[in-house]
Design a protein that fits this description.
By secondary structure, the chain is α/β, with parallel strands linked by helices. It has 6 helices and 5 strands, in the order αββαβαβααβα. A 5-stranded mixed beta sheet has the order 1-3-2-4-5, with helices on both faces.
Length: 187
């Protein structure tokens, strides 16, 4: 009996250790165009999850895509407002993995976040949002911005202003438990 118990305990230990060894490709910074996880969540009020225009099937284009992503959502555009997460995406499965990683390690309950997507990447993000609408709303999705084609300057000062207004409305609703006094809803 003791021998069987030792074997069972040993096997369960090996299985549990194996589960801890399994990691996501998104654990590694190389699989992100931008990953501002070093910036603590309390330092800024919102997160931006950005998926640029195309799938990254051509490794030679990665440096160019990284520069493009940084020009769109980096370069201080969201300084003091948001942490930016922009994963490398090759397929819909990768988007699911990147979002799972984000929600598991860098999203706290009800923390506001924004989706920004362009071109094929935006279409993937939009499909994910439609498929998981209830979960995303409960998790704190504040606003979404999508465009069908990649275009330089998609992320504008006006978009940043819209995010700030949506954030202010969400905070008001959270504090006072009702819609804004001007009758506008945060939806």
């Amino acid at each position: 009996m003791k021998k069987h118990l030792r074997v069972a305990l040993g096997l369960s230990t090996v299985l549990l250790a194996g589960c801890w060894l399994i990691s996501s490709p998104y654990d590694y910074a190389d699989n992100w165009l931008i990953r501002e996880d070093a910036l603590r969540s309390f330092a800024v009020p919102v997160d931006v999850f950005y998926v640029p225009s195309d799938y990254y099937t051509n490794v030679e284009n990665l440096p160019l895509m990284s520069v493009y992503a940084k020009s769109e959502v980096g370069n201080g555009r969201f300084t003091g407002l948001a942490r930016v997460f922009a994963p490398l995406i090759v397929s819909e499965k990768d988007l699911d993995r990147a979002l799972s990683w984000y929600f598991r390690y860098h999203h706290s309950r009800k923390r506001p976040f924004v989706f920004i997507g362009e071109g094929k990447g935006g279409a993937l993000l939009q499909a994910y949002e439609e498929k998981n609408a209830n979960f995303l709303k409960a998790a704190g999705l504040l606003k979404s911005f999508y465009t069908d084609e990649a275009r330089r300057g998609f992320v504008t000062a006006e978009m940043v202003k819209e995010i700030k207004v949506a954030l202010a409305r969400a905070r008001y609703k959270t504090v006072w438990g009702r819609e804004m006094s001007d009758g506008k809803s945060d939806e």
